[in-house]
Amino acid sequence: MTRFVLGRVTMMLASLLVASIVIFLVLEVLPGDPAAFMLGLNSSAEALQALREQLGLNQPVLARYGAWLSGMVRGDFGISYTYRVPVAGLIADRLWVSLPLAIYALTLSTLIAIPVGLLAAANRNGAVDLGAMGLAQIGIALPNFWFAMLLVLVFSVGLRWFSSGGFPGWEDPGAAMAALTLPAIALALPQASILARIMRSSLIDALEEDYVRTARAKGLTRTQALIRHALRNALIPVITIMGLQFSFLLAGAIIIENVFYLPGLGRLAFQAISARDLIVVRSVVMILVFAVIVVTFLVDIAYALVDPRLRQGRP
Amino acid sequence: MRHGGSLVLASLALVLAMTAPGAAQRTDVVVGLVLEPPHLDPTSNAAAAIDEVVYANLFEGLTRFGANGDILPALAESWDISPDGLTYRFTLHDGVTFHDGAALTAADVVFSLDRARAGDSVNAQKFLFADIEAVVAEDDRTVVVTLARPNGNFLFNMAWGDAVIVAEASAGTNATQPIGTGPFRFETWRQGDSVTLVRNPSYWGEPARLERATFRFISDPTAAFAAMMAEDVDTFPVFPAPETLSILDADPRFETVVGTTEGETILAMNNRREPLDDIRVREAIAHAIDRQTIIDGAMFGYGTPIGTHFAPHHPAYVDLTGLSAHDPARARDLLSEAGVEGLRLSLALPPPVYARRGGEIIAAQLRDVGIETDIVNLEWAQWLEQVFGNADFDLTVISHTEPMDIEIYGREDYYFGYGAPEFQALWDELNLTLDPDRRNALLGDLQRNISENFVNAYIFQLAKAGVQNVDLEGMWINAPTQATDLTQVYWAD
């Protein structure tokens, strides 16, 4: 197990370094000068030059990459060009919205998907199965921003149960959770639909395996065999999908963040890109790469926990 | 059944209506803004979103813009101008303090103006201070500004958000902890969500009637609509979803407010490039444009046609739309006269709706007279670098939102490249003129000059189409500068 973990950690660090080079270079070739963006249509060449000097944009490329990398290792991401505050704080604030939202949505989707998938597999081709999978099909087909708008119209504009968006901060945890509820539901529904279908099909595959027939022959009921033997084996593809979904929920919630005007990471990245606040963009992207790599790592560990063969390095 | 439902709703509404008067009058307001300011220091960034939060509320200058664009005294209670127009002696209000308790003195004015015009200044509107030769504090309440040449716009220039007075101690931290002299002081900024201001209890002038003002940043049109409908926001001075304004207007809780702005929306042409350096080609393009179709199609009917680069609500405005009336036949004649055939031009479009939607309509209208266009959609940063910075474009659609910015036509190195000597001569004469009637006549001549030379095709003045709660009073209707002046705002009973 130790060798397995060590190997994965080395891979992680190498991926991060490669990602940092790619991110830096891509943003270097992007057209658009942050100083010109900040000073607008009436700016003088003199003021522009002064601002570039102040922001450190006149230094050579390699020096700026080096400064960024060494700063990051120390946890110092630099000062945002436009916001004029440390990037680390800016990202930390946004993570306090995006991370709980992603966890909330993933929890909801898992709580819906696992029982629905189990029920559907247990009643294969029965009325419950057909109904659940029909709903899941609709859930996958619905664009989540449309569903989000529908939620706002019903629960904010109509019933006034929730505010239509915004985030009050964690000083009042109840209000904060309430503010994240509609976005989490909007994010969770399509994910739950996908997860339930994966859960169902991988359970059905497992149910056809020899060990399930053996278990049934030993005298277990169909449900007992499903829970004790098939479920554990069916979890690997489900965990894979959950890992992918978590990365998506963290990085890809920008549309939902827009609908609910939540101050999350996605909106920060979007605003920073349009303002050419490159120092923020590359740090946000780097954080997201880091998050995806960590999640992948955790998923690998989870595989190993579920499947002993992987722990010993066998295929 | 449906009747039963609406009956329940109606009686609920009645109960709510009956209980409402008992509730205390509101003293807070939530203002919806489309863009979040990058930071809160108006003296180092061009972003209009900064002024939309801080102008007149938090920071004040020597003078200020009134609701209709007139210039009012602010920190300066009065001033004397020498007969040669070169010396301005400002007397500051007594008892003005900054939000940190420090007293405002003439030294702060000297510091602010010197900082804005210094060599290493990063002020986005440095030209406002270009004519200043010296700023001297005579005593604590008297500042004398000497100009290198007379400038009839000087008091106007000092009203801009970029010319507000800041203290030396807080100038460096105003971006995140703004310290001004205004009737509101800064409380919190939840980045990405909202900025909150609270009433300044020790304000030198008439105190604000609101105790608290929250600016929420909502850029998504659907989210803005939902926020209004759910009454999470009390007003959107500039509403991002004009297509839903009629729905909100029909709702008895809300009213729409349509005013004018300083935004001249133009089809800018690169006067340096062939064949656009030929006045006949530019005139042809101007005649190809049907302004009302663009206003209806791109702006849902909100906007006023213009024939020159000047705001129609200004007393000096001259209606020159007739010079470039929609006339495709005339446009085709001019093109063949100029010997131009099969013309193909690039059309660069920045992100705002007026440009993206308007650009498509303009492209169709140009095709109608035989000009093909290649539409290139650009982000703001790209547009600023490529079109504005490097003048690498043929045509572009852009709204110039700075007040009284006809001056840009005098700059030879400006992106559309005009700067004709006769325009510059008129502009210089304007700066030497203090008599209001003569100034208006000269402003008229400037407008005629650029219109008759078809420098750009002038399309429409951007409207300020907003929506607000019917009980909210005192908001600006027009936008003489991009600001949300809350100093006179209150809730009606």
What does this 3D model show about the protein?
- The complex is a heterodimer of chains A (315) and B (493).
- Chain A is mainly α.
- Chain A has 2 domains: 1-85, no CATH class; 88-311, MetI-like (MetI-like fold, Orthogonal Bundle).
- Chain A contains 14 helices and no strands.
- Chain A is globular and about 85 Å long.
- Chain B has helices spanning 2-19, 48-54, 106-117, 154-157, 221-229, 245-250, 279-288, 291-299, 328-337, 353-368, 380-389, 421-432, 436-452, and strands at residues 28-33, 63-65, 71-73, 76-81, 87-92, 132-139, 142-147, 184-190, 194-199, 212-217, 235-236, 254-269, 304-305, 343-349, 371-377, 395-400, 457-469, 472-473, 490-491.
- Chain B is globular and about 70 Å long.
- Chain B is an alpha+beta fold and 493 residues long.
- In chain B, a hairpin with a 2-residue loop joins strand 6 (132-139) and strand 7.
- Chain B has 3 domains: 42-173, Dipeptide-binding Protein, domain 1; 177-259 and 473-491, Periplasmic binding protein-like II (D-Maltodextrin-Binding Protein, domain 2), CATH 3.40.190.10; 263-463, Dipeptide-binding Protein, domain 3.
- In chain B, the strands form 5 sheets. In chain B, strands 11, 12, 13, 14, 15, 16 and 17 form a 7-stranded mixed beta sheet that branches. Chain B has a 4-stranded mixed beta sheet with strand order 1-10-9-8, covered by helices on one side. A 4-stranded antiparallel beta sheet of chain B has the order 4-5-7-6, covered by helices on one side.
- At the A-B interface, helix 2, helix 3, helix 5, helix 7 and helix 12 of A face helix 5 and helix 11 of B.
- Chain B: Residues 1-26 form the signal peptide.
- Chain B: Belongs to the bacterial solute-binding protein 5 family.
- Chain B: This is ABC transporter substrate-binding protein.
